[in-house]
Amino acid sequence: MDKQRSSLIVRDQAVRDVARLVAPRFADCDQVILFGSRAVSRHLADSDVDLLCITERVPRGATKLRRRNITLDVVCVSTLRLQSHTWLGSELAGHIATYGIWLQGKDDWTPKVRRSQEAISRKAGLIESRVSALCRHWDMMSSLYHDRFSRIVRRDLQRLDHLVAGIPVPPSPILDDAWRETPHLQDRLTSLAKPLIRNRDAMRFVGLCLRHNVRA
Amino acid sequence: MTKPKKPSPQRAAAKARAQELLSELDESFVSNDDVRAVETTLYTIASNLAVLVLSHKMKVAEPLGEILRVAAQTVNDKKARRRLRKLATISDELEAYADKSRYDGLEDSDIEAANELREALHDGLDEWINSVQV
Fold first, then answer.
1. Touching check for A144 and chain B: CB below 8 Å?
2. Is A84 on the interface with B (CB under 8 A)?
3. Residues of A in contact with B50 (CB under 8 A)
4. Which of B21, B41, B109 comes nearest A60 by C-beta?
5. Greater confidence, A1 or A30?
6. Could you report how far apart the first and last alpha carbons of chain A are, in Å?
7. What is the pLDDT of residue A12?
8. Which of A37, B7, B60, B105 is most deeply packed, by most CB within 10 A?
9. What is the pLDDT of residue B38?
């Protein structure tokens, strides 16, 4: 796996550019891993650069950094937390184990990644709190923002579906491809929201998306 | 402070909604969930400010920081322009904390820092939105 990842670093110009960009800032990190759309070369010109940094001490402060018109979205995990059950069962750990590209350091933890009920509950909770807030704000937003948040919630429902099935969550463009290929979008959205069926806001949100004819 | 535009009921309604939403930024964050929930408040304010000062001239749903940066370009006064850019940075930083809360629990020091940003953003937006003529 390491060999495959190293060859990706050499071959992919976009990844090489990212590595050069972040190297000085993250020199002290044990591992720096590229994930998300750029790790699978499915990014747009203005896509964020998603990075996971494994470090002894997690720095305080902002997790988004702008460098030469590119936004670096950095998640820091301490070396101590890296070995915890919570991290190893998390959605992000599962994603990185499959799609991550090591820009610095060596992968010494992904074989321990496993499916976790905690991650599923956490994801469901995140969706529930977001749709509750959206239901409150929906009528105060323009249709552009309806589109944005419908897409965000739809992707999160797809991610929850992957977690429940024990499948690593792919980057957003791959989720979007799968969505575009779905024949009956309304039925699929309702079925994705099924784990949250007891949450009135979640079901109301699905109804809002359908009523506003948002193609999430 | 902002260049006057033609009076419009749509913009007046957007201003009223933005002011109403500011009351949500007036409440202290106590938990990780509070910080996470601020994301939709920031975007809903952005949606209304887009109508208020940019008259919908957007192709994508920009975050509040970006709306404030574009709004700064419509302002003549240098000091006011600087203040709006500063508010944009504060908004970006607050959104970054909301983002961070998705992956990992925020520590007390993070919540404290997010509260400082929230207060500064609330006060700055309150002053500026009140000054925008509809």
1. yes
2. no
3. 142, 144
4. B109
5. A30
6. 35
7. 58
8. A37
9. 95
Best residue of A64, A123, A139 to probe chain B, by most B CBs closer than 10 Å: A64
Structure tokens at B111: 């919540």
* Predicted TM-score of the model (pTM): 0.84
Name chain B contacts of A64, Cβ cutoff 8 Å: 92-93, 95-96, 99
Residue scoring higher pLDDT (A159 or A183): A159
Report the residue from A60, A63, A147 with minimal CB separation from B99. A63
Amino acid at the residue A33 = I
Q: Are B7 and B134 in contact, with CB atoms under 8 Å apart?
A: yes
- The residue among A115, A118, A111 whose CA lies nearest residue A168 is A115
Beta-bridged to residue A51, according to DSSP, are A34, A74
Lowest-pLDDT range of A126-140, A196-210, B5-19: A196-210
CB contact under 8 A, A144 and B60: yes
Radius of gyration from C-alpha coordinates of chain B: 15
Most confident option among A65-79, A132-146, B102-116: A132-146
Which percentage of chain B shows pLDDT scores above 70? Answer: 93
- Calpha distance A151→A108 (Å, rounded): 34
Rounded CA-CA distance A187/A50 in Å is 32
- pLDDT at position A10, please? 40
**Of B17, B50, B100, which is closest to A63 when you measure between CB atoms?**
B100
Alpha-carbon gap, residue A38 to B106, rounded angstroms: 26
Beta-bridged to residue A64, according to DSSP, are A73
Enumerate the H helices of A138-215 as residue ranges. 143-165, 172-180, 185-192, 200-211
- Check whether B2 has a pLDDT greater than 60: no
Average pLDDT over residues B33-60: 90
Chain B residue numbers with beta carbons less than 8 Å from the beta carbon of A144 are 47, 50, 58, 60-61
